[in-house]
Write a structure and sequence with these properties.
Layout (H helix, E strand, L loop, with lengths): L19 E5 L16 E5 H5 L6 E5 L15 E5 L9 E6 L2 E10 L2 E5 L8 E2 L14 E10 L11
Antiparallel strand pairs: 1-2, 3-4, 4-9, 5-6, 5-9, 6-7, 7-8
Length: about 160
């Protein structure tokens, strides 16, 4: 198992400066356009919106395109919560062969599998408490992805 980053000794919501950004109170329509006459600005704290449990939340960058069918591509920033109970259908981070792996959790019969959405990467069975037969082919869950920050074309990125 890979070592965990050190946990913060601070209780939730303390220690991190609030990051207030402007929020339009009107939602943007992804279907039929709505008039923007009532556009008003409010403030939103991205720490509160994106990190509900700071002591169990980590960030990781995506490397590779195995999850491109889910809209998650190379360079995206993931928000991962290790306290969320993983269920089939969720995107998770697992440890396989000593490295982190991003996949969707799926149930196939009585077993849980890690499935890529690119259509080419083979699925992996999760290691159960009894083991996976000792062949080393399984993987262990590490955390659940709760948000993926995806830069669109032309959007500035702070990634170096």
């Amino acid at each position: 198992m890979l070592p965990l980053p050190p946990r913060s000794p601070l209780p939730p919501r303390q220690g991190a400066a609030a990051l207030f950004c402007l929020l339009a109170t009107e939602a943007v329509s992804a279907g039929f356009p709505s008039p923007a006459d009532d556009y008003v600005e409010a403030r939103i704290d991205l720490n509160v919106e994106l990190i509900p449990r700071p002591l169990s939340t980590f960030f990781m960058r995506v490397s590779g395109d195995a999850m491109q069918g889910d809209g998650i591509v190379d360079g995206d920033l993931l928000v991962i919560d290790r306290s969320v109970d993983p269920r089939p259908g969720m995107v998770v981070v697992a440890v396989h062969a000593g490295a982190f792996l991003l996949r969707r959790l799926a149930r196939r019969g009585a077993e849980l599998w890690l499935v890529a959405s690119d259509g080419t990467s083979p699925p992996l069975v999760l290691v159960s408490d009894e083991g996976s037969g000792g062949d080393g082919a399984g993987a262990d869950l590490w955390g659940v992805v709760i948000h993926a920050v995806h830069h669109l074309a032309g959007a500035p990125s702070r990634r170096h």
